[in-house]
Records
---
Amino acid sequence: MAKAFAPGKCILFGEHAVVYGHPAVAIAIEQGVNVSIEKFDDWVIDGKSFDHSKYPHISHILHDLFEYKGEPLKIEIESQLFSAAGLGSSAALSNAMGAALHKLIKPQEKLDIIKLAKIGHSAEAAAQEGRASPTDTATSALGGCIVVSGERLTGTEHVFDAELVTPEGKRSWSVCKAILPEEIEDVWLILGFTGEASPTGKMVANVADLLSRDPDKKSIMTNIKEITQRGLDALSVGNFEVVGMAMNECHEQLRSLGVSSDSLDRLVEASKPYSLGAKMTGAGGGGCMVALSRNPQRVSEQIEISGGKPMISKLVSKGVRLI
Ligand code: PMV
């Protein structure tokens, strides 16, 4: 049997602005997806017959990327992530599947994490009509804190470049690691799920519509870019008070873009008294918020009291691994 784990992610800064070429900062979380595979006498996934249309990521990895023609497989998936919540559950699934399959097929060969991130990105794009940024898959594969941008930012270490031919033309990104302090003090991420699905495509389209109706709103993107750089600089020197302030500011900018929601705002406000900062994370319209805090239990309680589902994660978590 081959087993692998890949973490989910949350976006700390730069969601939506990244669609317009600005940087996004994403961070791997402790929770993720476990995949185990073994050779079997029939194709089975989670105890049921494998319906390829229900698992486009897995199907693409198996057939198009690995060109798997071996014996049927029994695949088990166990996810610790809220799904459709902006936590990168499909990227984590792609990466864990790619890693487990690599172990099964090529047990002698070392797992190439960058190749895996690219495989995961291709699987995401195939499942999303050719449109996907490498943010989720790169963060889940590499772990730590990842900066995805049209340009290389100072204070980051370049890891690889990603390209994708989308229905709108060719896109390219620079994927970098943020350089974080060696010792991270006692700060935690607390994710709060609103219980509502986060419709990424719809939210991105709403923003595009808003900007075409009201071009003055484009300044919000520049504001988010500046906040992102400030947040990243503070993160790299371990100044978490400033990171938190930047998160609060980022939330306000995202609110003025119209991508927050009443439930996201409620969870953010409830978390603030016990947090360094809090904001929605990902596409918005539902999904999750994230708080940075030295008092994670208190923030979790606040999220629960306000109707959300909390999850606590270390600030720095490792990327995909064989288990
Ligand atoms: O909610 P998520 O994790 O799918 O994040 C979407 C982030 C956006 O910037 C809104 C879209 C994108 O493609 O980067």
---
Amino acid sequence: MEALITLLPGDGIGPEVTECTQKVLDAVATMFGHTFNCDTQRIGGAAIDATGNPLPAATIASCEAADAVFLGAVGGPKWSDPNAKVRPEQGLLGLRSVLGVFANLRPVKVYSELVGASPLRPEILEGVDLVFVRELTGGIYFGEKTRDATSASDLCTYTVDEIERIVRVAARLAAERNGRLCSIDKANVLETSRLWRNVTDRLMPSEFPDIELETLLVDAAAMHLLSRPADFDVLVTENMFGDILTDEASMLAGSLGMLPSASLGTSTVGLYEPIHGSAPDIAGKGVANPCASIASVALLLRHSLGLHAEALAVEQAIGQAIAAGARTADIAAAGEAYISTTEMTAEILRGLN
Ligand code: NAD
């Protein structure tokens, strides 16, 4: 197949991990006989420096024409003045809106060789392989806000349509995986959560009768994620709960450098990015873990291009490199030797020849 992919390296370690992404795309293209035309554009701080705008028109045009978009990371101390009129993060929020992505998928897979990198006990982590589906464009983050000298408020709103579309994304994913969905809300306190639960309880048995549905309150979910993470398959929740729980879940894998994400909308065009930020503390040192970005390529191949065998090949290549002992600094055990970003990528590429 032929596909157009926009690459947005961004800031900090973003360009370093995007370079690895491009190498993996090239290897997949050669191995499976595809043509991936990659167009590199600016976003975030790099775009502010060059154009004054964190999301320049040329970047928007490229993303709108693309079959999929890969983003490294945006932000850094150079652009973090709280009084600044333009900020790198505006580029990312603008991009999500341009692409109309409302479902954020965050798979968390624990490699048995890396259980030591997590603060949790190995026996709890054995077999963890779950996907969070977080609603990305609604809820309290986007509601009306007020503030005066003595009080402040943030309005949380969800519509039936918003809940139905995200629950359907999660249920379809569960159908492709192990057939289990956990919906997380706070229905004992919040009206938006009561609506969420009503919609989920109505929609699931009628549209997805074969999916096993579990419902958890968000406080209990926070606990179950640490006490029985291997029991979960797909978890779906609203924007703020998802924001918090996905960071908690990232610790199951031990390092931010291992975890990919996909943001999807109604079309097949998606936004793929590692969950980590621009890591200014290690930028330019060549030590960033490229696994999160390379695993994001697998999601891109699967969800935007429909290339399932290719996606699996990338995921298996990461697993093989880890099993063979390849470690970047963030996932190496104390005293264990570690390799650079480029060397780790080369180890993964060995599985794609
Ligand atoms: P961060 O994710 O950049 O870094 C947190 C810690 O994890 C750091 O110690 C870093 O060195 C380490 N780390 C992150 N990615 C790694 C990798 N691939 N390999 C090895 N170690 C890795 O979070 P932060 O320090 O809170 O934020 C830094 C900047 O990134 C901020 O400007 C923030 O706004 C931005 N940010 C951007 C995004 C995004 O672009 N989507 C997401 C989060 C944070």
